[in-house]
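I would love for you to help me understand the pair of lines that follows before we discuss the fold together.
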Amino acid sequence: MAVSDLWHLFATYWVASLTMVFGSFIAGATSEGGGAVAFPVFTLILGIKPAIARDFSIMIQSVGMTAAAITILSLRIPVVGKAIIVAALSGACGVFIGLDYVAPLFPGPVAKTFFTAVWLSFGVSLYLMNRDKQRPTKGADVELCTFDYVALAFLGGLGGVITGIVGSGIDIIIFSFLVLGLRVSERVATPTSVVLMASNSVAAFFWKGFGFAAQPLAAEAWSMWLCCVPVVVLGAPLGAWFIRNRSREFVVGILYFSILAQYIGALILLKQTTFLLVFNGVTVLGGSLLFFLMTRLGSDKPFFSLPFAGRLSLARNNGT
């Protein structure tokens, strides 16, 4: 910034820098990307267009989440490496599709509603799972069967598409599958999702930044990004360091608070229409169903009464 004499941008975009002081810390400390803070603040409070907020989220996460990921790996914080590899590859394909083909189908108010509704459904499922304080959890060495790899590939692609719409998504989708479906502890699933969000953001930044996408990165997103890079390269690693010795309940508590704040804020600040309310409800129900299915996969109860239920359970037990 000093070389390009761009310090004057702070006079215009200082609010973005202030937002990312908190956003980058949360990004490094939880399964949320920095965009999970930036997108609702920028679109609901500051009135920035969702496409610009999405581009900024991707760009800033490619720096902050990557810095947090490097911190996680250098400190040897446990992660599920096999899940990262599979979901990162499918997630890259998903985010390319989301950016070019799916995001243009979502008008501004719909994109804002979609973001908060998906997060609320995730929060409900996480709450239901954590009612059992003594539930057994697994670590980074969790055994994966063939079905788990297929699920990770599918969900990674789905999460990538969501990232292409609102700037983050693969982190909470894979975090949910690890916690709800594979019973991995939040203390392991959180850094795993941080590394994944970093890889997905870098892939999206590369896709749009080097001209492969249908639309280039927004000019305003570049200006905000320049103002926030110095903040996130410190905030995200600090968050990753801060959370490493915190309890599972502490991590979940942060997630509950941020999810409720975003959803309630959207209901208050967005002008609600019949379509938005219906879309909101359908998205919450659809997301809750997806996370419920993950929960069933992670329980000892039969996965409904489907013919493959017994075979899936046997495969899980045998690790095949």
Q: What stands out?
A: Confidence is low (pLDDT under 50) at residues 302-311.
